[in-house]
Structure formats: C-alpha cells, structure tokens
Specification:
This protein is mainly α. It has six helices and no strands. Helix 3 runs antiparallel to helix 4. It is globular. The chain starts with a helix and ends with a helix.
Length: about 80
C-alpha cells in the first residue's frame, strides 16, 4: 500500500459525528474505510468503496478533499 495513503488515514480525527461522511454527496463510509485500511484490510476497504459507488476511482479524482478535511477540523 502506498505510504501516503496511510499518512492520510492517520490524519483522521475519528469524529463522533463524521462530517466527512456527512458532507460526501454519495455518503461514502469514509471513517469505516479508513479504519479498515489502517488494520491492513485493503481488499475489504476497496470492496466497501466499490459497493458504495462503482465509480469511486473517478469520483476520488474530482472530490474536494480539502473541504472534507475542513469540515472535520471545524467540529
């Protein structure tokens, strides 16, 4: 797994009310996916993303990740 992916996953604040998921237009289970990745369950995390949205890879390229992070920091 790319090291930068783990670096980003480690930045998760584990919010009680995850604003990143709330702010996601397709309600991707971001905190759950992050926890799976941190526990080495990359395949399970990938399938969860795919089942939520078969176009996850494309959407991840156009998603405003900075806005999602700001939502977490503000709460």
């Amino acid at each position: 797994m790319a090291i930068h992916v783990l670096d980003e996953a480690n930045r998760c604040l584990n919010c009680k009310v995850p604003q990143c998921q709330k702010g996601c237009p397709i309600h991707t289970p971001i905190p759950t996916v992050i926890q799976l990745m941190l526990h080495g369950k990359l395949d399970e995390a990938g399938w969860m993303l795919f089942e939520n949205n078969p176009l996850t890879t494309v959407c991840s390229l156009i998603c405003n990740h900075d806005l999602q992070r700001q939502l977490c920091v503000m709460n």
